[in-house]
Amino acid sequence: DGGITQSPKYLFRKEGQNVTLSCEQNLNHDAMYWYRQDPGQGLRLIYYSQIVNDFQKGDIAEGYSVSREKKESFPLTVTSAQKNPTAFYLCASSIDWRAFYGYTFGSGTRLTVV
Amino acid sequence: DAKTTQPNSMESNEEEPVHLPCNHSTISGTDYIHWYRQLPSQGPEYVIHGLTSNVNNRMASLAIAEDRKSSTLILHRATLRDAAVYYCILSGETSGSRLTFGEGTQLTVNP
Fold first, then answer.
1. CA dist., res. B20 & res. B37, Å (int)
2. How far apart are CA A15 and CA B28, in angstroms?
3. Which of A37, A79, A89, B89 is the most buried (most CB within 10 A)?
4. What do you get for the CA distance between the two ends of chain A, in Å?
5. Do A43 and B44 touch (CB under 8 A)?
6. CA A113, B42, A89: angle at the middle one, nearest 5?
7. What band does B26 get if pLDDT is binned at 50, 70 and 90?
8. CB-CB contact of B10 with B107 (8 Å)
9. CA dist., res. A62 & res. A85, Å (int)
10. At residue A63, what are phi and psi to the nearest 5 degrees?
């Protein structure tokens, strides 16, 4: 079945360390997205990519970096510059940037800084 | 960015219909209206979407106002499994990649 795979499901990081969250899709979607969700809050856009080898900052990009070298992969690196990285991270994709047919979400990665 | 407004919470009884409202007064002519729902610690799940006409699928119905400035998600017979946060969002050429998720509506279903 086609879908989005996020790994790992749970991730623990020591303060000052960078960590990379994986997002892979086999839907042949052009656009991919990363969101952050804090308890009781909605989703906030970190980065998005409309097409391979291109990506744009979202609303809360500081302290994060991404790459889009392959259509199916959009990894997110949480750097030590991110002051409060503990959160639930969600990856999504859509056929194209207009997303007329909606979005497919992964099951999320819960990152905890210890 | 086109924004949506939803009530923070709603409550329903099991087996009764639920009408979840959403206002989107700045919607453009090419924006689609999407509804997703999210259970705790899971990714949002697609529920339904539409452009102008009312839509039905096995999960729900979507009623879109004639001026498209509001819509209503209808769950015909709520079950305990329908308890979730419901998000109404817009996508299209103006909303596109920067789609905005508000805090959604927390639906509680009472047995």
1. 12
2. 44
3. B89
4. 36
5. yes
6. 35
7. confident
8. yes
9. 11
10. 90, 0
CA distance A59 to A72: 23
Q: Which residue ranges in chain A fall short of pLDDT 70?
A: 1
Q: How far is A83 from chain B (nearest CA, A)?
A: 22
Q: If DSSP codes are grouped into helix, strand and coil, which group holds residue B111?
A: coil
Side chain identity at B5, as an amino acid letter?
T
**How far, in Å, CA of B10 to CA of A106, rounded?**
26
Chain centroid to CA B49: 8
Q: What residues 24-83 of chain A have any CB closer than 8 A to a CB of chain B?
A: 31, 33, 35, 40-45, 48, 50, 56, 58-59
Q: How confident is the model over B59-104, as pLDDT tens digits?
A: 899 999 999 999 999 999 999 999 999 999 988 766 555 667 778 9
Distance from C-alpha of B18 to C-alpha of B106, rounded to nearest angstrom:
12
Three-class secondary structure of residue B57 per DSSP:
coil
Distance from the Cα of B111 to chain A's closest Cα (Å) equals: 23
CA B58 to each of CA A46, B34, B47, B74: distance values in angstroms, whole numbers, following the listed order: 33, 15, 9, 11
CB B6 within 8 Å of CB B104: yes
